[in-house]
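Sharing a chain and its predicted structure for anyone who wants a worked example. Both blocks are below, sequence first, tokens second.
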Amino acid sequence: MRQTMRTAHGTSLTMEAEDRDDDDRYRAPALDKGLDILELLAEQKEGLTRAEITKLLGRNASEMYRMLQRLVARQYVVRSAAGDRYSLSLKLYALAHRHPPMNRLISEALPLMQRFADVAEQSCHLVVYDRGNLLVIAQVDGPGTWGMSVRLGSRVGLIDTGSGRVMLAFQSIEQRQQMLAEHTKVKGEVTIDRDALEQVCERIRTAGFSQKDSQQIFGVTDVTFPILGPSGQAIAVLTCPYLRRIDEYAAPTLEAATALLRETVQALSMSRERAA
């Protein structure tokens, strides 16, 4: 919409024209090129070659080469193991976790987590990736006398937990490799061969979730679902460390708790879509 403003001297200024002038005056071509690359790669699950990036953006090869070299050097973009494909690193993802939208994720998740805990009579916790492992950003206890909970703010292992394996399973190959490269062992971590870990991740992707006996606490069954972003990659995971009652109290079964956790994640995903 065109807006006209009259100055004290009677001169009319067209705001639309001023906006165009400002756009031209403050152009930063190099920044635009970098942002174009990041936005393009954000839509790609398996990355792109330099030639593909050059063609899709309509740029010349030499300027794309220089820009990609800088984005790799600053760790916003990573190269594949073969060195021929480029994809987004987790740096933007990590930066986003320091930003208020993470608070929005927590505020949206907590009421749904509380409802799950009340109905399933189990605790649950929400984790995100953080510097090579996972960080617990929200936790809700079950309503009963007995329960298993993970302390808020704890760092959880990436390799040997249900949460970690689901987080790894729902990433691109390049992002998973970067996570594993950044990974540092936590206390008591159970080691696993990389090939075996890839097989586990493939089974989790096929099933859509993980259900396994805890490798940290005897008698606990970890049930974990991913919270997926627009590109289909996990931005967080929700886990219930299920405890089975052996007395005469008829608590919800593991199967019932799993179904409830699935519904919780689906409801959280829908609420995030509406918010977007």
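Comments welcome. DSSP finds ten helices and ten strands in the chain.
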